[in-house]
Amino acid sequence: MNDFTFYSPTRFVFGRGAVDRVGRELAADGRRRALIVYGRGSVARTGTLQRVRSSLAAAGIEAAELGGVRPNPEIGSVRQGVRIAREMRSDIILALGGGSAIDAAKAIALATPYEGDAWDFFAKRAQPAAPLPVAVVLTIPASGSEASNSSVVSNDAEHLKSGINTDLIRPVCAIMDPELTFTLPPYQTAAGVCDMICHVMERFFSGEPAVTVTDGIGCSLIRSAIQMGPRVMADPLDYDARANLMWISTLAHNGLAGLGMGVAGKRDGDWSAHALEHELSALDTSITHGAGLAVIFPAWMRHVWSAHPERFLTFGKEIFDIEPVEENPLAAKDAIECSIDELQNFFVSLGMPRTLAELGLVEDDIELLLPGLLANRGERFGTFMSLTLDDARSIYLSALR
User: Fold this and answer.
1) Which ranges carry the Fe-containing alcohol dehydrogenase-like C-terminal domain (predicted)?
2) Which of 148, 13, 35 is nearest to 96 (CA)?
3) Class assignment of domain 189-400?
4) Segment 163-220, tens digit of pLDDT
5) Architecture of the domain defined by 11-180
6) Do 145 and 137 contact (CB within 8 A), yes or no?
7) How much is the pTM?
8) Do the Cβ atoms of 376 and 275 come closer than 8 Å?
9) Which residues, at least 6 apart from 225, have a Cβ–Cβ distance to it below 8 Å?
10) Is the separation of the CB atoms in 56 and 25 below 8 Å?
């Protein structure tokens, strides 16, 4: 087990009706002026936005709003939010939604006290110092951003999608009401299940030796997601399944599932599949992150498994109860390939795409993905297996059809 430092400052308020406590929770922390950041209307149509407004008003908290944040949030929305936050002298940024709203809120929190441009943090031209605090009312379990140290933002003008990782942007409070997820569309629900599973797998396949207790946590989260995913697809009002998925989303990406598997100075995992997918949704912002991962992660697995077959054998046994029938390399290869197929078949069973072609990509698009990957990750990247841009091209091509 490698050394680690784990910091998780988020206070979780979880359960039925939790959304109506947001004002009380923020007021207890001394907050008086909140900027609410949300997406393109679903929180208004379902009444969640009005419930948040009412809760804040009842607690004496002044609120301004930034709506219209798109999936794969764009830096323009962040800049707009910074202007509003400064004008109202906001003392907290409140994200209402899923990963896109939360990531935008984190970026706004970083940039509001900063004299330069918000994109400086994502272009690695500035280091975060003292951002505003962030709170979350979660409506889409998927990204785990409600408790993570990550924010990912797109810059359409530069055709880039870049992220930042710092404990300074971990939310101070996450309001988690599973009933708010009852109205999620099936595709978004399925993409969320894929996203949370992939967050665990990025850490499981870190390239570092096994850590028994952390492996146990990670594999349990994946097994639970595989169990709960079909339940909510069959019955969107299954509260227990919705609640379990909401909590899996958080634990999959708050760092717990990677403890002892990181290397000093690096993230707790490989994150190559995420890097490869980010270029997809930078090229086409309509691509849902979890759907892109459902295609890219199995393709990455098939490309790299030979670097550490023992990890894939453990994964197959723990997740799908698949083991080699004999003790020889050919049997191990068959078991590993069968495990990868089982994972991808599960994603597809939820309604996720199997190929990049299903997401609208053609072979000529592959070369368009590589410059952004180079800018974000360099000529070599990955800890499970060191990859080059040629490797990336091969993975993309293998996922195409």
Assistant:
1) 189-399
2) 35
3) mainly alpha
4) 999 999 999 999 999 999 999 999 999 999 999 999 999 999 999 999 999 999 999 9
5) 3-Layer(aba) Sandwich (3.40)
6) no
7) 0.94
8) yes
9) 193, 196, 197, 245, 248, 252
10) no
